[in-house]
Amino acid sequence: MMKRIVTYDVKKGNDYQAFYDYVEECNGEAITESTYLLNSDLKQNGFEDKLRQVFNKGDNVAYISVNDKNVLFYKKINI
Fold first, then answer.
1. Where are the alpha helices (DSSP H) in 1-79?
2. CB-CB neighbours of 63 under 10 Å
3. Stretch 69-73: mean pLDDT
């Protein structure tokens, strides 16, 4: 299980519900209004693909995690 922090800014008019459903699926918790801690079994590429599925074009999405060398990194996701 990997802990990841997702932060986002949803484009006006876009829907948050698919992301909120994913947060619930991952037993996630809110850190701030637009930042969540998620627990995921997905590897990095799978996690990024999932984020692309639950957000919409124009949304600004990034996440913080650690790599296989236990080094902290930040990555912006192109939606």
1. 17-25, 44-54
2. 22
3. 90
